[in-house]
Amino acid sequence: KNEVEQSPQNLTAQEGEFITINCSYSVGISALHWLQQHPGGGIVSLFMLSSGKKKHGRLIATINIQEKHSSLHITASHPRDSAVYICAVNFAKVNRDDKIIFGKGTRLHILP
Amino acid sequence: NAGVTQTPKFQVLKTGQSMTLQCAQDMNHNSMYWYRQDPGMGLRLIYYSASEGTTDKGEVPNGYNVSRLNKREFSLRLESAAPSQTSVYFCASSRRVIWTHENTGELFFGEGSRLTVL
User: Fold this and answer.
1) Which B-chain residues 13-42 have CB contacts (< 8 A) with chain A?
2) I need a labelling partner for A20 at 20 to 30 A (CA). Which of A54, A106, A108, B88 fits?
3) A44, pLDDT greater than 80
4) Per-residue pLDDT tens over the stretch B74-111
5) SS3 content of chain B, % helix, strand, coil (to 5)
């Protein structure tokens, strides 16, 4: 069964701390997404990656294909980073990469 | 730059009533998706459409029908609503992901539709 597991489920940290959210998946994938959902519900794509590392501002996403694991890091965290972070994967099927499976999300709360 | 637009944003139905959620994207994307989001669970795929004229079932298709009217529009219909269908529904779109190419499959979401079935 194709599964996506995120950890931790909930994370509370002080402003300025370095944050790491983890995502593990069960079988081969063609792409992995990190998404952000703020209170109020809107979902925004942060990264899509299939290898290596990507950086955007204070956000860094890495993926290790051999270990079937990805991490999302937030440097110098700020209260406005408080949101639910969701990992999602395209499980590779021959010529059919359209099914995307989502993790349950990590609820991040940054205290001022 | 509308992106993905879904309507309505809120709807209250009585058990047995029918309704259609509308979704449109203006990014010329091939793939479109309907998800539901329930407390304590990840987004679950109801139906998806890889291209105009094709639709496929996702994880939780029972009680729903879809129609890919054209490349822009992908609607979700509840023929006879049940309280178990109370949820927040999200439409999303992406260019078709080709596994050797990065940056072709970023997901774009609508703002969500909160549906309550009494």
Assistant:
1) 31, 33, 35, 40-42
2) B88
3) yes
4) 999 999 999 999 999 999 998 865 444 444 578 899 99
5) 5, 45, 50
